[in-house]
Amino acid sequence: MWLVQSIRLTASGIWSQLQSRISCLHAHNFCLSLYPGLSMLPHAKFWKSEGDRKVLPAPTTIVPFAGRIGANQEFSLDKNNCTQIELLQKFPDAAPWIPLRDALSLRHFIQPELWKAATIEAVGPCARICNTFATGALVPSLLGAVTAILVLPLLIFATGPVSGAHLNPTITIATFFARLATLPRCILYIGFQTLGATIAGLLLRASFDTRSVCYSPPILGMRHWGSVADPLKQFTVPGCYMDATKVSPGNAFAIEFTTDFALIFTAFGVGLDPRQRSVFGPALGPIFVGITLATCTIVTGFSRVGYTGFSGNPARCFGAMVGSHFASYHWVHWVAPICASITHGILYYLVPPYSRGKAPNASNGSS
């Protein structure tokens, strides 16, 4: 009896599958009768045999980069592997602890892959500068933290395979002093990051009509442009503006330096330490970096009256001031990250997360 039942169930299953395929075939023939041109298309057949199956194009090969944020050096090379010397000669920063001669060599400017990666780096600051609000200092800090948690990890995931997802001159400078990026990559990345932020600043100027708004010195520490500022036309980019009558540039530098160092230290710890792969894996690194930036933004936004929080991204503030007017304290947004990167580079040299064995010298070439 059980044998008859199993045969019945098997037969009914085969029959239902056959009916569904026949109905699909009838629908396909009906479409061909309405649109005869479909029969000429290469993919017009409903079923494909193994021989007719078209092979999809292979994805672009990821260029190894030891300074890729969020991957915990998953895609970096072993500098002691003799089979990878040719690739290391082309991309010395494919492995950590780049020899100084290779890190400072300018011949890598001719690598087209480096220019493509730098072009992608322009997207991040251009998107992040859009965290702009026409309100006071408190709300931008709160909303800036929320957008950092949501937007930054997505941008890291989107741009990481191509450029390493720095999206920030602070991170780029830090990877250079940590000997994870070459000087040509550092120059190109910072240049394109600033270019992307400049384009965003020009778009903000067109959107908010900010050149017709005149900021007085008591508000933002800028030069007086001859008229009273319209509050409805003002916008605030978190971390880029402060009340110069309440916060001096020296105070701003101290806050900026301390927070930049904390951001770099944490970003390297969760996004660039190869030992973290077995703890939470490279997929969670970008999310932790976004949480770190959000925490720094909201904490420093409440730290001082008249202070909208730390910059964390000098290119973003540069673009914001292109959209309005340049403040006299804009140097803080650049000097503080450089000093924090040098300090972190010294710490990274003293306590590296990897072995500093002798790497193949890319400058020698293969003879």
TrEMBL record:
Signal peptide: none annotated. This is Aquaporin. InterPro entries: Aquaporin-like, MIP, MIP_CS. It is a multi-pass membrane protein. Keywords: Membrane, Transmembrane, Transmembrane helix, Transport. The chain crosses the membrane at residues 137-158, 186-208, 252-272, 279-302, 331-351. GO terms for molecular function: channel activity. Belongs to the MIP/aquaporin (TC 1.A.8) family. It comes from Penicillium olsonii. It holds the Pfam family MIP. GO terms for cellular component: membrane. It is found in: Membrane. It comes from the Eukaryota.
